[in-house]
Fold this sequence. Notes:
Keywords: DNA-binding, Phosphoprotein. InterPro entries: Bact_response_regulator, CheY-like_superfamily, Sig_transdc_resp-reg_receiver. This is DNA-binding response OmpR family regulator. GO terms for molecular function: DNA binding. By secondary structure, the chain is of the alpha/beta class. The protein has one domain: Response regulator (Rossmann fold). The chain has helices spanning 14-26, 62-71, 90-95, 108-122; strands spanning 6-10, 30-34, 50-54, 56-57, 60-61, 80-84, 100-103. The strands form two sheets. The chain has a five-stranded parallel beta sheet, with helices on both faces. Strands 4-5 form a two-stranded antiparallel ribbon. Strand 4 and strand 5 form a beta hairpin. The relative contact order is 0.17.
Amino acid sequence: MTKTKRIMIADDDPGILDAVGLILEFEGYEVHSTLNGSAILSMASEFPDLLLLDIWMSGADGRDICKKLKQDPATCNIPVVLISASKDIERSALDAGADDFLEKPFEMDVLLQKIENQLKKTG
């Protein structure tokens, strides 16, 4: 039996956290979520298998968080999918080290495919 994959979602919209969290749990993932993107940087040793990170959060820019995670040897291999309602910043999301980008509003099928693709890469 394979270990349940853990996904951390950071978004300052509680509706998105609830909706995406429910669907991911239904798909068999263990989901943790936070309204505070900065909290991701203070995660204990319990790192997720994948991060879904909103770019525009109050008090935190997902791109800055992504850069810090990718520079830390302990977290640099965690796939990060940055999410934003602004399609014009996909390039800067990828430049920040994101493994993928998703524009809001998004289809859940597209999100699930991106998650699956990233988790396949990491094993």
